[in-house]
Each structure stands twice: as structure tokens, then as C-alpha cells.
Amino acid sequence: MLKFREITTRNGVKLLAGKNAKNNEELITQVERNEDVFHTAAAGSPFVNIKGKAERGDLKEAAIFCARFSRDWKKNKKDVIVHRFKGKDIYKEKGMKIGTFGIKKFKIIKIKKEVIENWLQ
């Protein structure tokens, strides 16, 4: 098993992020039903999982973390759209490639370019 990217929010909550498609696949297998998960609207992003009870600031940090390591950010250096959803809303259908999942419902978070640029791990 590959180790995930891991950071701790200012509130002390652990965030885990996948490093590639296979790692994202492994990350999703350990997500609990009511845990928050993030992924960019565009393909090529880590899935980010909040472990434990998250507060508003934790949700924002997780969304920024997700955006910062996305292909969308690396290629375009513009605002990034991130989807937030619960573990119970993730599904995998036969034929979906490794690291790809479907989402039943999600919330949209727009992360501004300036916020990503100023975010320090």
C-alpha cells in the first residue's frame, strides 16, 4: 500500500490525499460513510478525505489541499472548482478505470487562485 499525502488542519483534524490513480483507489476504500471527501470537478485530482469531525475551517482547508495538488491547478493556475461529498455518495461501476468513481450528490466549492497561491502546508 502506498502512503497517502497527509496534513493536519489548524484545528488538528487529519486530511489524507491520494498521490495517483491507484492511491486514490486505496484512499476511497478506507473512507467511512459519513466522512467528507473532496475532488476537483476536472479529472486529475487527489481524492481528499477528512478523518474525524470537521468544522468549517477544516472543510475549506481540505478543498484548498485538493485544488493545490490537482492537474487543473498545475496546468492552468486559475480558480479551481472542487466537489465536496460524503463517503456514502461514492460509487464504482464495472468498467470504470482505476482511480475513477461516480458521485451521487455533491456541493460545489470555488477555490480562488489567490487562496491556492497563498496556502502553506
How far the N terminus sits from the C terminus, by CA atoms, comes to 24 Å
Q: In what order do the strands lie side by side in the largest sheet? A: 1-2-4-3-5-8
What is the averaged pLDDT score? Answer: 93
Sequence stretches where pLDDT stays below 50 over 5 or more residues: none
Question: How large, in whole angstroms, is the Cα Rg?
Answer: 13 Å
Measured as a percent range, the helix fraction is: 25-40%
In short:
This protein is α+β, with helices and mostly antiparallel strands and 121 residues long. It is 28% helix and 27% strand. The chain has four helices and eight strands; from the N terminus they run E-E-H-E-E-H-H-E-E-E-E-H.
Summarize the topology.
Elements: E1 5-8, E2 14-17, H1 21-29, E3 36-40, E4 48-51, H2 56-68, H3 71-76, E5 80-86, E6 90-91, E7 102-103, E8 107-111, H4 113-118
Antiparallel strand pairs: 1-2, 2-4, 3-4, 3-5, 5-8, 6-7
Question: How is this structure best described in words?
Answer:
With about 120 residues, this protein is of the alpha+beta class. It is built from 4 helices and 8 strands, in the order E-E-H-E-E-H-H-E-E-E-E-H. The protein has helices at about 20-30, 55-70, 70-75, 115-120, and strands at about 5-10, 15, 35-40, 50, 80-85, 90, 100-105, 105-110. The strands form 2 sheets. It has a 6-stranded antiparallel sheet with strand order 1-2-4-3-5-8. A hairpin with a 7-residue loop joins strand 3 (about 35-40) and strand 4.
